Automatic annotation (TrEMBL):
Keywords per UniProt: Isopeptide bond, Metal-binding, Phosphoprotein, Transferase, Ubl conjugation, Ubl conjugation pathway, Zinc, Zinc-finger
MF annotations from Gene Ontology: ubiquitin protein ligase activity; zinc ion binding
Functional summary from the UniProt entry: E3 ubiquitin-protein ligase which is a component of the N-end rule pathway. Recognizes and binds to proteins bearing specific N-terminal residues that are destabilizing according to the N-end rule, leading to their ubiquitination and subsequent degradation.
Zinc finger (UBR-type) stretch: 34-106
GO terms for cellular component: cytoplasm
Name the UniProt record assigns to this protein: Putative E3 ubiquitin-protein ligase UBR7
E.C. code: 2.3.2.27
Pathway in which this enzyme or protein is active: Protein modification; protein ubiquitination
Catalytic activity: S-ubiquitinyl-[E2 ubiquitin-conjugating enzyme]-L-cysteine + [acceptor protein]-L-lysine = [E2 ubiquitin-conjugating enzyme]-L-cysteine + N(6)-ubiquitinyl-[acceptor protein]-L-lysine
Name of a matching Pfam family: zf-UBR
Naturally occurring in which organism (per UniProt): Sphaeramia orbicularis (orbiculate cardinalfish)
Domain of life: Eukaryota
Sequence ranges assigned to domain UBR-type in this UniProt record: 34-106
């Protein structure tokens, strides 16, 4: 291997490191990396892996938690599944003929509540291809469906991928067609939906008859309210020179039924992207709750079920862990003089390393392993020189 093959761009290293750190924070920090999640039952959402070494294609699909991927499947060929909901760790059950879980050996033979897909064999999307795909030269992001949790290429969704897609949830066309009531919601909540959705759900209908063009002040307020579609209570004014009849309809028991009655249509094809907060607008009447439960979609009423909520939990966990940094704890056990000496040494090294790397960046050069080795050798030499200068001997 030549020296050129061993070198990398400093910018590439920094960007890749930052990207990997953010991804790890979002996915992994929300799960326990030390203890098998099996005792927790069907975890609401967690990072999962499939082991191609232990359960290859042709066998039974199985998933393992984050901790088991580290402790029980180290060095194995793993498929990263990102996160899945309501899943119980399979590691060591009957699907693993030659492996016993090191963290939680006492497990049932099978987790009947788990749901599996082709993702557990390392393929994704309607095209059933691996990711990354060595044979695919098209740069395309993959987006996870809220319901089936499969990952699909943007170009295979059958719709235009919106801007700020990371702030929206997506339901694939297959899941939309499987749960057809979602198309009714999509006509009002997704895409170019009316801004007056709330008014449509809570609107009071008014019928007005006017006998003269002039209004008393109270009647004028009512007329203004009616024109703005604002809700007002029954109002009559016998002394006024006009007569206003106001009829207030009872609020519907089911939002879904009212939306169906409006009969607003949209093309029922392609995936659907849902804006932030759309789950809170779904009907939660007893009938709809029963239907969602029977369809296995009760989680749609839970705004904390989202991947974004999971990622925020992981980031909060990481911040708490950083607050308990072992290095800072060690510093607390040192006296004031020792603390100042260590902080001084750290700041010196950070400044010198920054200046060292800045020279490479300014000249457009790459940093080689030999450059880094020489830098730290110089640091050690300077440190030894400072120590030797400060030594005194008695004769």
């Amino acid at each position: 291997m030549t020296s050129e093959e061993q070198t990398v761009s400093l910018v590439d290293v920094l960007e890749e490191d930052e990207e990997l750190e953010e991804e790890a924070s979002a996915v992994l920090a929300g799960s326990d990396s030390d203890h098998c999640s099996y005792p927790q039952g069907y975890v609401k959402r967690q990072a999962l892996y499939a082991c191609n070494t232990c359960t290859p294609k042709g066998g039974q699909a199985a998933g393992v938690c984050l901790a088991c991927s580290y402790k029980c499947h180290e060095g194995h060929d793993l498929f990263e599944l990102y996160t899945k909901r309501n899943f119980r760790c399979d590691c060591g059950n009957k699907k693993f003929t030659d492996l016993q879980c090191k963290l939680c050996p006492e497990k049932e033979e099978e987790n009947t509540g788990n749901k599996y897909s082709h993702n557990f064999f390392g393929v994704y999307c309607t095209c059933s291809r691996p990711y990354p795909d060595p044979d695919d030269q098209v740069e395309d992001e993959m987006i996870q469906c809220v319901i089936c949790e499969d990952w699909l290429h943007g170009r295979h969704l059958g719709c235009v991928v919106p801007d700020c897609v990371e702030l929206q949830e997506m339901i694939c066309e297959s899941c939309m067609n499987q749960h057809v009531f979602l198309w009714t919601y999509a006509a009002h909540l997704a895409g170019k939906s009316p801004s007056s959705l709330r008014k449509r759900l809570d609107k009071t209908h008014f019928y007005v008859t006017k006998t003269e063009n002039s209004f008393q002040s109270t009647d004028q307020e009512v007329a203004t309210a009616i024109k703005k579609d604002e809700e007002v209570s029954l109002h009559t004014n016998c002394e006024s020179r006009c007569l206003v009849f106001i009829h207030k309809e009872a609020e519907p028991d089911c939002r879904l039924k009212e939306l169906e009655a409006i009969a607003q249509k949209r093309v029922q094809s392609g995936a659907v992207f849902w804006p932030s907060g759309w789950r809170s607008k779904l009907c939660s009447c007893s009938s709809c709750q029963t239907s969602l439960r029977e369809s296995g979609l009760s989680f749609l009423l839970d705004e904390s079920d989202t991947v974004l909520a999971y990622e925020n939990k992981g980031k909060n966990n990481e911040q708490r862990q950083q607050g308990n940094d072992p290095l800072m704890s060690a510093l607390d056990n040192l006296n004031r003089v020792q603390q100042l000496e260590i902080i001084h040494e750290y700041n010196d090294m950070k400044t010198e390393l920054k200046d060292f790397l800045h020279r490479f960046a300014a000249e457009g050069k790459v940093v080689t392993p030999e450059d880094i080795r020489q830098f730290f050798e110089q640091q050690q030499s300077r440190k030894r020189g400072r120590v030797n200068t400060g030594q005194f001997y008695c004769t």
